[in-house]
Amino acid sequence: MKKLLRYVLTVVAAGNLVLAAFADSSKAVKKALSAKAMKNDRYTFELAENVVRERVAFHNRFGITLVGDLYTPKNSAGKMPGIVVGGSYGSVKEQVAGFYANQMASRGFLTLAFDPSFTGDSGGEARNVTSLDINTEDFCAAVDFLSTYGGVDPEKIGAIGICGWGGIALNAASIDTRIKATAAITMYDMHRVMANGYNDVNDNAEARKKTKETLSAQRTKDYLAGKPELNGGRAAKLTGNEPQFQKEYWDYYIQRGYHKNSVNNPGQGWAKTWVLGMINTPILAYVDEIEAPVLLVHGENAHSRYFSEDVFKRLKGDNKELYIVPGAVHTDLYDNLEKIPFEKITDFFKTNLK
Known about the structure:
Blueprint: E1 5-11, E2 15-22, H1 27-32, H2 35-40, E3 51-59, E4 65-73, E5 80-86, H3 96-105, E6 110-114, H4 132-148, E7 152-162, H5 164-173, E8 179-185, H6 190-196, H7 205-225, E9 230-232, H8 244-256, E10 268-271, H9 274-279, E11 294-299, H10 305-314, E12 320-325, H11 332-335, H12 342-352
Parallel strand pairs: 2-3, 5-6, 5-7, 7-8, 8-11, 11-12
Antiparallel strand pairs: 1-2, 3-4, 4-6, 9-10
Helix pairs in contact: 4-5
């Protein structure tokens, strides 16, 4: 499409719909932006009474249209501090990102939760694929949107990343100086875990060689099939023999936090070859150069806690903090209001986006 179009539409009974620099004409994206789609969307949380939700679309520098939800405090006036929210890995805006965006909007911030490229309502082909480079760009594109949105002060933009998107948020903050404060919640370093395995148990050339051989053969298979083979997502039922953290993931994605668009659903999952790109893309190479404030939040009993602890050791400056939530596991910080330290997170952004 040679000319980018700007639309402003009103969605009856569902709030406003804002399309900024919308260049993707795919039927799927147009359907997601319809009044009917937004009205029928099932969110995994209740919208706060003092918050308005709007459907928005914007594009990244790869030309992919991203679809998101904008959360604005009711009766707000003037330019407000804005926060972009991404995560968890494989979820959609109606799940974890939206939950956080809703909570932070109820506390006085204008927030944006979005579906990453190739997932949910956002554009991009093929589906259910992921790239640390493109996903970092998705975060920066969300900053593009907020920094040009009339209700946001472009000098007061922060980022929240949850799970794998915690690492991606830090990666974005290491290159995008418009991000003035970053909170990484129950973070993963997706490069590290895919290249080395959990707790780095496979951090050796021979283990990686076996993985690369398997997935290289899978690439040939996918090419012949004309589409990528998916890894199947979460199991529909547990056997009881799974590691505890896998049971906790299952409890969120298949039980209390289920959403039909999630990549993690049974029969779905990521394209099997996604791991190859992860192995070869170390995303936190310059995390030590982040000058803006950073808050790392992790659960005391989370299997992933070491990611935050190790990143914190690399951060520089007296404006960095690691906060450990007593008794919390990884997925408690997805949606557990009794565990997520929202007052701590709110104070962090109020202090650093003023």
